[in-house]
Write a structure and sequence with these properties.
six-stranded mixed beta sheet, alpha/beta, RibonucZ/Hydroxyglut_hydro, globular
Amino acid sequence: MEKILTAVVGIYQTNCYLLKDNGHVCIIDPGKKAERIISMIDENEIVDAILLTHGHFDHIGAVDDLVKQYNCPVYVHEADKELLINSSINTASGMIATVNSPVLLFHEGKMEIGQFCFDIIFAPGHTEGCTLIQYKNHLFTGDVLFFEGIGRTDLYGGNMSKMRQSLRIIQTMDSALIVYPGHGPTSTIEHELQCNPYF
């Protein structure tokens, strides 16, 4: 049975998620505090990968330390690779974080990563490479969809027209999906369709 742990990290209170299933772990958006994240992973658990919903500094700050600890691959959308290495475009407040570890690329659709099988949905708008990551009835939305809100579109790579297209995709998804956003509390697709003013 899968389990999801949350570490709220960094200046923007980013949600880092640890998705655990059958002794394996995927780390989603480790924005900071590598040691805290490591402390939430049991010694007998295997870290299969780090998954990045997008490339902003507040979602990537602990990546290199975790790769050093677990020697695991890092996945991101191709369109956000530049954000990982260029701190002048991945920040909103002058804070610096980059990823020096090698990265692999998401492809849309079913994707097997370690012991996990994900549905990968590209959802630009907040950045060009924003990615929704679905595992069973769990949907990790990064900064695309929040509890009764959406991510900013005024930063580098942001585009409100593309965001609207991404929201239309979300509207077609299973209403029972549990939403795990990049910031703030969890939700469901059903709640967002009913209460989020952007739908």
